[in-house]
Design a protein that fits this description.
455 residues, alpha/beta, Protein-Tyrosine Phosphatase, Chain A, 3 domains, six-stranded mixed β-sheet, 17 helices, globular
């Protein structure tokens, strides 16, 4: 096994996954050094006593040369592939892996990994709910909520692990091999981390299936041209296409697709019409895709269709993803803080059939707003620009629809509320990262809801 050749391990980054993987590796007998450049007194004080009690060596406030005194480095998703730290580790011939790679060495049960530019959180949560409702011992973890390493010791051979994976986590895998890999879609994102190359970003997403064999499944979006190009040379896993535009029953032995509004799954036991799309509790075209991916994951593992159907009807969605917050004098407010790229906003706008006041802005990641230009023309009556990228938003959209610049986050919500009329929607779907003003998108979404609830 790959992990048997290592003795000393440096873990870089003491956030949620870094703490969890340090504890896991220490429990397996490795010598572990946990290193983070952040201020321990401000950020990690709650973890210090725990780290000390486990006899894990640690350093905060810097990455000293000690981190290179190892034969394996486990890096946080926040560490860029182009960083000096990774360059130096490569020069010293130190293996570099991600936390999900290390956790996969010790996890038991069936691993279902899910990635995509958009929809992966909803698909992960929905898939997890289906298995939980069906009575499986289920763990939902990864890029959402609990770190993979944190649940490893609780798993057994009967466990179902539903793992959301980001491109950053996939960058440093070596033997990571899910039983079922789901690739929902690929659109340009995080280009600041991929040398402004959409192709390099797409290659990173594709890695979810690179170690799969003929006993594994790759569930992929056959309506997405980028996905199709990236998976065409992956011949080893059994391929399971997902489509909302094409009846796949006569082309593929296994497929999930939309057939006259019915979410349908075809496999060796026949064709099952699971649910009418209008019965889904989560609305929008993107959620039809998310539901089809969840159906495929569940049916491939043998979950009864009646149980799948009930879970789909009951699922209420994910916090910060097109989340209804409040109706104020006939104006509905929606929190879509998780929309950190332009493609997410494209889906969000298409989910409404009333005029929108759209709040855009935050930390820009190389956004190309032309992708939503037509949708804005059709559906948006006013944009409120906020955050670090507000002038870029203003300059792009000012000749397309009215744009107001807000001085801060609270001001943008007040301005949006003022501009919206009865039976219209204020949509906070920023298309940007949150790090200019907030700790993360969850913090940003909670603040949005707090302010809206104070109106």
């Amino acid at each position: 096994m790959l992990f048997e050749k290592y003795n000393k391990i440096s873990v870089i980054g003491a956030a949620r996954s870094g703490i969890a993987v340090s504890k896991l590796l220490k429990s397996k007998g490795y010598s572990v050094l946990l290193s983070d450049s952040g201020d321990a007194e401000k950020i990690y004080v709650e973890f210090i006593d725990k780290i000390r009690s486990l006899n894990i060596d640690y350093e905060f406030g810097k990455h000293s040369e000690k981190i290179f005194e190892c034969d394996l480095m486990v890096v946080s998703p926040g560490v860029s592939q182009n960083s000096e730290l990774i360059r130096k580790a490569n020069e010293k011939k130190i293996d570099v892996v991600s936390e999900i790679e290390a956790a996969s060495w010790f996890a038991k049960g069936k691993l279902l990994a899910i990635t995509g530019t958009n929809g992966k959180t909803t698909t992960t949560m929905l898939t997890g709910k289906i298995f939980e409702d069906a009575g499986y011992k289920t763990f939902v973890c990864g890029n959402i909520g609990v770190a993979f390493s944190e649940i490893v010791e609780q798993t057994d051979d009967e466990s179902i692990i539903v793992l959301e994976t980001s491109s950053f986590q996939l960058d440093n895998i070596k033997s990571f091999k899910p039983l079922i890999a789901s690739l929902i879609n690929i659109t340009p994102d995080h280009l600041d981390r991929y040398e402004n190359s959409a192709d390099k970003y797409a290659d990173s997403k594709k890695r979810i299936a690179e170690n799969q064999d003929e006993n594994n499944f790759l569930v992929y979006n056959s309506d997405d041209e980028v996905v199709i190009q990236k998976v065409k040379d992956l011949h080893r896993p059994k391929r399971v296409p997902v489509s909302i535009s094409e009846d796949l029953s006569n082309v593929f032995d296994i497929a999930a697709y939309l057939d006259r509004d019915m979410l349908t799954f075809t496999y060796e036991l026949g064709t099952e019409r699971i649910l009418d799309r209008n019965e889904l509790s989560i609305k929008g075209e993107h959620n039809v895709y998310n539901s089809l991916f969840s159906i495929a994951n569940a049916k491939l593992m043998g979950v009864a269709s009646e149980s799948v159907r009930k879970s789909l009807k009951d699922f209420k969605g994910v916090e910060h993803r097109l989340e209804f917050v409040r109706d104020v004098n006939g104006v509905k407010f929606y929190n879509d803080s998780k929309a950190t790229n332009v493609n997410s906003v494209w889906y969000a706008i298409r989910g409404f059939d009333v005029p929108l006041v759209l709040i855009l802005g935050g930390k820009d990641k190389g956004n190309d707003y032309s992708l939503i230009e037509n949708e804005v023309k059709k559906h948006v009556k006013q944009i409120v620009a906020v955050g670090e990228s507000k002038m870029k938003v203003y300059e792009f959209f000012r000749n397309i629809c009215p744009v107001i610049i807000a001085k801060d986050f609270e001001d943008c919500i007040y301005k949006a509320a003022t501009e919206a009329s009865k039976n219209e929607v204020v949509l906070f779907s920023p298309a940007c990262a949150s790090f200019d003003m907030f700790e993360n998108f969850e913090h940003r979404g909670k603040e949005f809801k707090r302010i809206v609830n104070s109106l």
